[in-house]
Amino acid sequence: MTIQIAPGASVKGLRLVLIYGENADVSGLDVGLVSKTTGDQVGLQWGLVHLNDGDFLGLQ
């Protein structure tokens, strides 16, 4: 089950994932159980599982 305001859109700032979320690019704080980024990610990830198809720069 996915609940997103803007599914698949890029996120700048805070991404809060309840169960599973998927977005194009993420820049900022990424918090959640399971999240996937199909593009690049810059920032801090905190959670159980984070999948990233692109480049990652930050802390997990």
Task: Describe the protein's architecture and organization.
It is a single chain. The chain has a 4-stranded parallel sheet with strand order 1-2-3-4, with no helix packed on it. It has strands at residues 11-23, 26-37, 41-52, 56-59. The chain has a domain at 11-51. The relative contact order is 0.23. 0% of the residues lie in helices and 68% in strands. The chain is mostly beta strands and 60 residues long. It contains no helices and 4 strands.
Summarize the biggest pleated sheet.
4 strands, parallel
How much is the radius of gyration in Å? Answer: 10 Å
Number of strand segments: 4
Percent of residues in helices:
under 10%
Round the mean pLDDT to the nearest integer and report it. 86
- The parts where pLDDT drops under 50 for at least 5 residues are none
General form: globular
Q: Largest sheet, order of strands side by side?
A: 1-2-3-4
List the total number of helices.
Answer: 0
Helix/strand/pairing category: mainly beta
Strand content: over 45%
The CA-CA distance between the termini, in Å, is 24 Å
- The helix-strand sequence is EEEE
